[in-house]
Amino acid sequence: MPTQHAAKDLPLTAAQWRAIAAVWLGWGFDVFDALLINFVAPNAIPTLLGLTIGSAAAKAATAQWTGILTALLLVGWAFGGLLFGHLADRIGRRRALILTIVVYALGTGASAFSPNIWVLIVCRLVASLGIGGEFATGATLVAETVPESRRLISGAFLQTASPLGLILAGTTTWLIAGVWMPQAPQLSWRFVLAAGLVPILIVLLLRTYGNDAAERPTSTRPLRQALTSLFSPELRACTLSAIVMSVLGLFTWWSCNAFLPTIGAGLGARAAAAAGLTGAAAVTVAESWKASITLWFNLGGVVGALLTVPASRYFGRRGMFALYYAMGALSLGITFGFSWDPATTLHLAFLVGLAVFGLFGAFAYYLPELFPPHVRGIGAGFSYNIGRLGAALGPFLVGAYTARQADTTTGAMHALTMLVALPIIAILATPFIVETRHQSPARRDLVAPTP
Q: Is residue 278 part of a domain?
């Protein structure tokens, strides 16, 4: 018979690989759907408000409504995480995951037909419920499906889907708005948002994933009782650790990521003007630069997510968070606090992504490590999505500040420079969070359920 140690190192089964693949795709496409509106905002928002695309009024309105829409997305995202996290504990992880994908895909697809800004808001709120539920549900499913020895790398691997989803969003926007339909910016954004229906196809893969222990419900308790248990003496420190790290990380990421397309488009417009380009040619250049800054940011995110694994093993969870937040403060200050030439700014976005985005590779395994099975779904969902509620203030403030500047591109960069304060606060908080390096989920399963 194999020893316990050998059992831990057995290769992943076909069912485990299917689970990882389905969650990875679902995760990537939920970010794809979430951020499509940020890429099409310079065209969509003026169209829905009856403003001339590219005018000063349109740019100010785009900055302000991008902040508002992102803030509303995060609020809906938070409630979706709470709802579907609890549902995952009651009906099983896979079934809940299927529901989240269907909800966010239909919400994003429907937004393509919005006749005004108010209908767009409703569609985005519907989509945000499913988007918010997907993270906690998917991370919990993988954490409970793969062997303990594979849990760390599997969690970090999941996060690589997020930056790749953003790269796909930028590429899709560039192809549709910049290559295929540069003459019709008032219409192209609707086709971009319609692409948000594609994740429905992932449901077919999930339906082939057979039942196992992770599929069975782990709790029958009502939502109120489940939430109360998160703040019991046994779990209070874990819950607060998850909330603090999530709030500070998400506030920084969303404030930064929501306005990178605006910065990229602005830098591209400057490059086009310097080259004497106008009309459709200028639109193509602006869309290309928008995709480029997103590409560099997200490539940094992929690398950074994978590097959280050796960093967590060597420095522990506390040391890893401190290291990444320190890199985040430096990269934000260097990239947006100095007057680089536009091409250099694009490339420096890689460093921002490495730290600010790469950090989230750790959340996929850190949050499930904190909670026992009977509240793992609701614990991860509640803590991470409370972070989104706090983060909702970031894009709103950045958007309000940017809209009041004469040059919205420069204004957005100044606003992102001021975000340096958040990683510094996070560094000061890391000594007080729960360290889970030597406390595996299997050991946390021994925590007794709260009555």
A: yes
Query: 135 and 382 in contact (C-beta within 8 Å)?
Result: no
Q: Which two tokens stand for residue 10?
A: 């057995």
Buried b (16+ CB within 10 A) or exposed e, 413-430: bbbbbbbbebbeebbebb
DSSP 8-state assignment for residue 10: P
Angle formed at CA 399 by CA 184 and CA 389, multiple of 5 degrees:
115
Structure tokens at 446: 């021994």
Number of domains into which the chain is organized: 1
- What's the confidence (pLDDT) of residue 215? 54
Q: Report d(CA 51, CA 302) in Å as an integer.
A: 37
Residue 390, φ and ψ in degrees, nearest 5 = -65, -40
Which helix H or strand E contains 373, and what residues bound it?
none
Residue 1 lies in a domain: no
Residue pair 377/134 in contact by the 8 Å Cβ criterion = no
Q: What is the mean pLDDT of residues 236-252?
A: 92
Query: Of 229, 226, 205, which Cα lies nearest the Cα of 217?
Result: 226
Are 57 and 18 in contact by the 8 Å Cβ rule? The answer is: no
Tens of pLDDT, residue by residue over 18-34, are 778 888 888 889 889 98
Choose the weakest-confidence range: 7-11, 145-149, 174-178, 350-354.
7-11
Establish if 110 belongs to a structural domain.
yes
* HSE toward the beta carbon, residue 23, CA cutoff 13 A: 32
Contacts of 296 (CB under 8 A, 6+ apart): 346, 347, 348, 349, 350, 353
**Structure tokens of 120?**
């767009």
**Domain that residue 392 falls in:** 13-444
Contact 336, 414 (CB under 8 A): yes
The CATH code of the domain that includes 225 is: 1.20.1250.20
Write out the DSSP string of 208-236: TS---GGGS------HHHHHHHHTSTTTH
> What distance in Å separates the CA atoms of residue 427 and residue 425, rounded to the nearest whole number?
5
Q: Report CA torsion sign: 69, 376, 232, 223.
A: positive
Please compute, for residue 157, the number of CA atoms within 13 A of its CA located in the half-sphere on the CB side.
16
For 112-147, b/e burial (b = at least 16 CB within 10 A) is bebeebeebbebbbbbbbbbbbbbbbbbbbbbbbbe
Are 173 and 291 in contact by the 8 Å Cβ rule? The answer is: yes
Residue 4 placed within a domain: no
pLDDT band at 224 (very low <50, low <70, confident <90, very high): confident
How far is C-alpha 11 from the geometric centre of its chain's CA atoms? Answer: 30
